[in-house]
Structure formats: structure tokens, C-alpha cells
Design brief:
CATH class: Alpha Beta
Helix content: 25-40%
CATH architecture: Alpha-Beta Barrel
Largest sheet: 8 strands, parallel, barrel
Radius of gyration: 19 Å
Shape: globular
Strand order of the largest sheet: 3-4-5-6-7-8-9-10
Number of domains: 1
CATH superfamily: NADP-dependent oxidoreductase domain
Order of helices and strands: EEEHEHEHEHEHEHEHHHHEHH
CATH topology: TIM Barrel
Strand content: 5-15%
Number of helices: 12
């Protein structure tokens, strides 16, 4: 099983990163659709296959994702690289969100309690905070590292300019720099290739990319002629009361994106593989990608996703996918870096 160093650090992570946004009871807060029994099976199968990188966030399913992950890795904590994130609201008070010293300190302590661990391997800023000086954020994160409660720090959904600002701020305060960025990246969303990936390379950040299957569109599950199943991710988003969620789904289910999905399906058939494996293999083989975040809800989905980490795409298939998807844009609902995933 292949592992790579994450950015300018000595931390080795698997090419697959287990995203746990789905971990939590169906009908509970957030996206949860994978109850604890199945979630533990997914974690076991993931680590049994040789992968070591698990990502969560304090905002996922009202904190339940962190609790489930913590219980799932109990007794083997030192064998996994555990990542979590903070920024999103944890209450209604003014200091219950953001990247201020007061909120990050509270958020870190809460995450440690929920996961039942003494340290977090990779602590990430979930998004940019325009209301907090970046020097305050970086100094606070450096204090976490010096205390031993955090090993490394990273960010998610930052623009190229924000990455540079953060790294410069870390240097100004004599603190710890970021070693990773978690951006959106897939055949449907290639914007990070222009500025963000080169900036990461110059400033020592590895990447763990999210939504590599384009919200499920690249699995071939959706068609032009049939409305998404009510129980599918796109079906749930389109029926959501959140305008952001509906806009996200509408921006993904475009004619152009469905043409790309058709090509992925055709290539998969020719290779005797699956569309999901082809889409994941394409992302994994891209320059600058360290790890690819997958979010299976079942062990069967996990097995299908992991096939994408051993599949080698022929050059002609890569060239065809590159040509068809060139100029892809992030969905309008998240077209500006700094937004968070639905």
C-alpha cells in the first residue's frame, strides 16, 4: 500500500483518506447516513486494507462523527493518522465560530473529548476567517503544537492568496506553518490547478482533496431523463430547504458534467472497471495530489472506491478525460474558495 509524506513534513499518509462526514444516525443533524455499526465496519475494512488516514470535523453530524471515529480507533490510536477541522458554528454565541483564539481553544478541547484522544495528528482550519487576524490564528495553532495536543496543522478551502498569507503569518510570529490543504478537486472541478496547486507546492503543503466523485455525478448514477432518486445525495440536496444545498446540486447536474460522466462510464466499461474507480484513479494520478478523500457509507462502497487506488489509467484515457474536462469550474455555490462543503 502506497503512502506519501504530507507536504513539507515527515508525516506519512495513505493515498486514500477516509472521509467521515456521513458517519452518524440517519435523520440526525448534518449529512449522517452511516450508523455506528456500519461506520465501524468501514473503518475496520479501511485500515485492514493498509490505509491509515481518517478525516472528520467537529461540525459533522453535530459532533457525532468525531465520537464514532474516536470509538472506532480506540485501542489502535497510534496506528492511524487522525485529522479533524474547526471553524463552523458550535453554538449561537458570538465566539462559537471562527478561527479566533477563544473559539479554536474551545473547539480543540471539545474535539479531544469527543474522540477520546490526547492528541490530534492533523488539525485543520475548515475555512478562512475574514474576522480574525491570521497572525492570531497561526499563533494559536502553534501553541497547540507546542502543547503536544496537535502534531501538525493544515487548512481547508483556502485560496492561493490565503495560503500565502497564512504561511507568512506563521513565519512572522515564529510559529508552525501549514503542511496541508484540503480543497475540492475532481474531473468536474479543476480550478485548483491554475494557482492553488502550484502555491501548495511552493509553500510546502500536501493536499487531501475532497469530492473526487463530483458529488456522485461521476459514478454514473444520474441521468438527463430521470430525476434523482429521493434517497440519493443529489435527491436529498435538491429537496433541501437550504438554497446553498439546492444550488450545489443544480450546478453539478449540468449537461456538460453529465457528458464528462458519460465518458467516465465508457472508459470504465472498456477497462472492465467502474466509473467510480476511473474517476478516483484520474484524481489520484494528478500532479500535486497527496491523498484523496473518499466518503463511503457502506463497506461495499468502500471496496468499490478502493479499486480506484490500484487502477492505472491508460494514457489515451487520461488524455481524453483531460480534454473533455478542461476548463471545469467549481459549482457556483462554492465558486469562491473559503466556502465549506454542504
Amino acid at each position: 500500500m502506497e503512502h506519501l509524506r504530507l507536504g513539507n513534513s515527515g508525516l506519512n499518509v495513505s493515498r486514500a483518506c477516509l472521509g467521515t462526514m456521513n458517519f452518524g444516525p440517519p435523520g440526525g443533524p448534518g449529512v449522517g447516513s452511516c450508523d455506528e455499526t456500519e461506520a465501524r465496519r468501514v473503518v475496520d475494512a479501511f485500515t485492514d486494507a493498509g490505509h491509515n488516514f481518517i478525516d472528520t470535523a467537529d461540525a459533522y453530524t453535530g459532533g457525532e462523527s468525531e465520537r464514532i471515529v474516536g470509538r472506532a480507533v480506540k485501542g489502535r490510536r497510534d496506528s492511524v493518522v487522525l485529522a479533524t477541522k474547526a471553524f463552523l458554528p458550535q453554538g449561537t454565541a458570538p465566539n462559537d465560530r471562527g478561527l479566533s483564539r477563544v473559539h479554536l481553544t474551545r473547539a480543540l478541547e471539545a474535539s479531544l473529548r469527543r474522540m477520546g484522544t490526547e492528541y490530534i495528528d492533523l488539525y485543520q482550519c475548515h475555512q478562512w476567517d475574514p474576522d480574525t487576524p491570521i497572525e492570531e490564528t497561526m499563533a494559536t495553532l502553534d501553541g497547540f503544537v507546542r502543547s503536544g495536543k496537535v502534531r501538525y496543522i493544515g487548512c481547508s478551502n483556502f485560496s492561493a492568496a490565503q495560503i500565502v498569507e497564512a504561511q507568512w503569518a506563521a513565519a512572522r510570529v515564529g510559529g508552525t506553518p501549514f503542511i496541508s490543504l484540503q480543497p475540492q478537486y475532481s474531473l468536474l472541478a479543476r480550478d485548483i490547478e491554475t494557482e492553488i496547486l502550484p502555491t501548495c507546492e511552493r509553500h510546502g503543503l500536501g493536499t487531501l482533496v475532497w469530492s473526487p466523485l463530483g458529488g456522485g455525478v461521476l459514478t454514473g448514477r444520474y441521468s438527463r431523463d430521470t430525476a434523482p432518486d429521493a434517497h440519493s445525495r443529489m435527491g436529498r440536496l435538491l429537496a433541501s430547504p437550504s438554497p446553498l444545498a439546492r444550488a450545489w446540486a443544480e450546478d453539478l447536474l449540468t449537461e456538460r458534467n453529465l457528458r464528462i460522466a458519460d465518458e467516465v462510464t465508457e472508459i470504465a466499461a472498456g477497462l472492465g472497471s467502474t466509473p467510480a474507480a476511473v474517476a478516483l484513479a484520474w484524481v489520484r494520478q494528478r500532479r500535486g495530489v497527496t491523498s484523496v478523500v473518499i466518503g463511503p457509507r457502506t463497506t461495499a462502497q468502500l471496496a468499490g472506491n478502493l479499486a480506484g487506488f490500484t487502477l492505472e489509467l491508460p494514457e489515451r484515457a487520461v488524455a481524453r478525460l483531460d480534454e473533455l474536462s478542461s476548463g471545469s469550474r467549481l459549482p457556483g455555490a462554492l465558486s469562491r474558495q473559503g466556502g465549506s462543503r454542504v
